[in-house]
Specification:
globular; single chain; alpha/beta; Rossmann fold; 2 domains; 7-stranded parallel beta sheet
C-alpha cells in the first residue's frame, strides 16, 4: 500500500536506534525526505547507512532534544534544507531511575520531566510553527503501555508518559481546525539487543525468541496475548501509517501496540 508519504518531509526525534531507526527505514522506503535527530552523530550515521540509496540523503541533526533551543534549531535546519516540515515523530524518552513513590527522589522525577515529557513538548511546539503556516501537518508521540497498567517501580516514568498522551490529545483538539493531526502510540514490551536475549534465555531456560517476554511475564506479571515482545519494525509500521495520508481521519488517538493486553 502506498502511504502517500513520497516527498513529504518528516522529522524523527530519537532516530539513532531502536524504534526511531526502524521508523526512519520505513519512511525512507515510502519515499519521505527525512531529518534524523538524536544525541549521537555516529548512531545517526548508522541509521542513515541503512536507508535506501535511491532517496534524498537525510539531514542529520546531532543535538540533545531535551536542551532548550535544540528543537527550534532542528526545525530551522529542516526548513533550510527542505523548505517544509510535514510530519513529526517523537520517539525519544529513555528509561531512567525506577522505584516506588517513597523511593524516588526529586532528581528521578526531574529526569523523566526533562528527558521524557519536555522533549515531546519542545518538539511539538517547534514543529507546530511551520505546520500552522502550511495548514497541514501530522504528529506522532510516544507514550507507554504502562499508563493503562500501573507498575509500582515505574511511577515517574508512567506519569511522564501519561502527560504525553494528554498533551497529544490537546494538540489534536486545538490544532485540528488548522489541518494538523496528532496521535500517540502506547508501546508494550520492545525487543532488546541479542546479548540481552541470550542472558535472559539462559536465566529462564527458554528459547531466545521468548526470553524477553518471559522476563516481563515473571518480573512484572505482564501477560501478552501473542506471548512475545514487539519488534522495532512492528512499531515503526504503525507510526508511519499514522503520519501518512492513509490515516487522514485519525487524530487524538492513543493506540496500543502491545501484542494484546487487558487494556
Amino acid at each position: 500500500m502506498d502511504l502517500g508519504l513520497r516527498d513529504r518531509v518528516v522529522l524523527v526525534v530519537g532516530a539513532g536506534s531502536g524504534i526511531g531507526a526502524a521508523t526512519a527505514e520505513v519512511l525512507a522506503a515510502e519515499g519521505a525526505h527525512l531529518v534524523l535527530m538524536g544525541r549521537r552523530e555516529a548512531a545517526l550515521q548508522e541509521t542513515a547507512a541503512r536507508l535506501p540509496a535511491s532517496g534524498a540523503p537525510p539531514l542529520l541533526v546531532a543535538l540533545d532534544a531535551s536542551v532548550e533551543g535544540a528543537m527550534e534549531e532542528a526545525v530551522a535546519r529542516t526548513l533550510d534544507r527542505f523548505g517544509a516540515l510535514h510530519s513529526l515523530a517523537v520517539i525519544a524518552g529513555p528509561m531512567g531511575p525506577r522505584g516506588s513513590l517513597h523511593e524516588m527522589d526529586p532528581s528521578a522525577w526531574q529526569h523523566y520531566f526533562d528527558s521524557g515529557l519536555m522533549i515531546a513538548v519542545r518538539a511539538c511546539k517547534a514543529a507546530l510553527v511551520p505546520m500552522r503556516a502550511q495548514g497541514v501537518g501530522s504528529i506522532v508521540t510516544t507514550s507507554a503501555y504502562s499508563i493503562r497498567a500501573q507498575k509500582p517501580a515505574l511511577i515517574a516514568y508512567t506519569a511522564a508518559k501519561a502527560a504525553i498522551a494528554s498533551i497529544t490529545k490537546n494538540i489534536a483538539k486545538t490544532y485540528g481546525p488548522e489541518g494538523i493531526r496528532a496521535n500517540c502510540i502506547a508501546p508494550g514490551v520492545v525487543e532488546k539487543d541479542a546479548a540481552t536475549r541470550a542472558v535472559l534465555a539462559e536465566r529462564y531456560g527458554v528459547p531466545e525468541a521468548r526470553a524477553r517476554y518471559e522476563y516481563v511475564r515473571r518480573e512484572f506479571q505482564m501477560a501478552v496475548a501473542l506471548e512475545r515482545v514487539g519488534q522495532h519494525r512492528e512499531f515503526a509500521d504503525v507510526i508511519a501509517f499514522l503520519l501518512s495520508e492513509r490515516a487522514s481521519y485519525v487524530t487524538g488517538a492513543t493506540i496500543n501496540i502491545d501484542g494484546g493486553s487487558d487494556f
